Protein: Recombinase
Organism: Gimesia chilikensis
Amino acid sequence: MSFTNTTSFTPRDNHVLHVLGVERISKESQDELSLDDQEALLKQYIKQNYDGPIDFISIKSQGSGEYLDRSELFEIESLIESRNLDVVICEDLGRICRRRRAYDLCELCEDYGTRLIALNDKVDTSQDGWQDSAFLSTWHHERSNRDTSDRIRRSLRNRFINGGIIQTLVFGYIKPDGTKTDQDVYKNPEAEAIYEHWFTMLENGASYSDVADWLNREKIPLGPGSRSDKWSCKMVRRVTYNPILKGERVRNKKKSKRVNRTGRRKSENSPPEEILRRNCPHLAFIAPDRYDRLIMLLDTRNKKYCRKGKNGKDTRKNVSKKRTRFPGQMVECGICGHKYVFGGHGQKDHLMCDGARGHTCWNGVTIDGPLATEKILSAILTEIEQLPDFDQKFLANVQNEARRLDQDLVKKQSQLESEIQRQEQVIENLLNYIRSGNSSERVSQDLSRVETELKENQLELSSIKDKPRSTVEIPDIFELKELARTNLLHLDQESWEFRILMKRLIPKIVVFPYQLCDGGKIVLRAQFRLFIAGLLENSSTRDTLQKPLERVLTVDLFDSPQRNAYREVVVEMRQANAGDNNQTVKEIAESLGITDTAVQYAMALQRQMDSLGITDPYIPITEPPGTGKLIRHKHPRYQFTPLPHAGEI
């Protein structure tokens, strides 16, 4: 240990030295005992330089120091800002994090009167000139990482050019054990006829799904790296577009780029000059000219299904799939439990059950997104406007709910504290087992699992302790209604902010298929729990009012057909003029501005309802319809596989 301490430690409280040790390893393949070795080194240094009582806590983590959004890093900053720490110590700054963020953390320690020591980097914020050492250390770590990355990249590119880097191959290729170059790889003769028929089908207009069905019927095996047991549409497309089928290996089509804000990396297309190609004629199943013609044909055929974008730019590029407009990612199918996704039946504003799209559900009814938004929003505003004033009974219920939540928090806190104590003992026992010279993969897995669970419980316990108790500020009912009007009516319904607000009000929307009792089009009804308290910003008030202000709503996501829309008024007019003054069908039609036939259909629908003894003209559809367009259940690929929570709201 070449770095020596020249400044004595001085506890804040003049009694106990509060020390935070930071230990980290990067990969799962690294020995977890390295964390204990780091901790032992840090404790030894503190004990050698301070004779008084020491309160030493550790934050151990496993993950890349490049990642700046790790929970451990936020926890370290929180402890520093609490002003309870005297010293933060680590083996080197890279154990905390890398890049400029490490230097910023040194400055944070200085601002809050906490001393930071990085042994190998010779950084001690209590000494003059520590900024030079910290700056040089962060620069050295960044340069070292970049040099290592460039060296690995150069080596892999050179090996590929010389025929190396033989990774997982698609169906039809055999890679013998010990293969070093692509010259050792050869084609499976039985795959020749399969690929010939495959490409002929596509040339004749077959879809990828048609090819997948044929491959599954013929029981054609998948490639050695496949995790599925059946061919799918996506898999057929992926293999079709693999140029190795024409005898060309390609590498570096994608490259990773660091997102500086988080330190994590995202994949993006490489520029053309960085893409490597290697000609391997002995691996070609399809003649290159024929292959290129087919790929051009497929691109032209499927171009109409691509997003058009605006001004030639894809508006969804680099946008997470979860960052979608309302009601995307919020609607579930009441039949199978799968989510509804945009693009139903080729309409970009319509949503369709993802299970039906994959032939695992028969409910192929789509939702008109803008219409559904309009009807759900109208139902929410109507429900909120009908809220009565908060009377004494309601206020008493709220106070009871607040006390119940407090009791639940106390109970949960006690359970977490007991569980944390048990987990710490389990970790200590596992570490003693490993220190005694025993080695077991299962023990290492258990240790990693328990440490992860311990960290989650500690974070949850910290969150519970930070929650205020029995402090509920109940807003005025008129204030709540005005808040709803302001937020729901003034936000753009296509915006991300509108979706976030709706997510707080309606965590989940479940849709069920219905049909008029006299037949006709199958439509969807939505059921959801409305949490009106989601309008409030104060978390304590929001949690307390969540149950008292919870409502369950049912909303029709469709426009009612004419015979049902006029049914009630037609019946009222007939009953009001019963006897000698009974209006004729023609007179009713003229007064309502509809046709005679429409009046007759409305009356027939009411007679059908009376014969069935029902007051709601719509009846639920619980089985696949025998006729009509919704015949997905008759497709050879159909296999009904509902999720366990299907139908729950």
Observations:
- The longest helix spans residues 392-435.
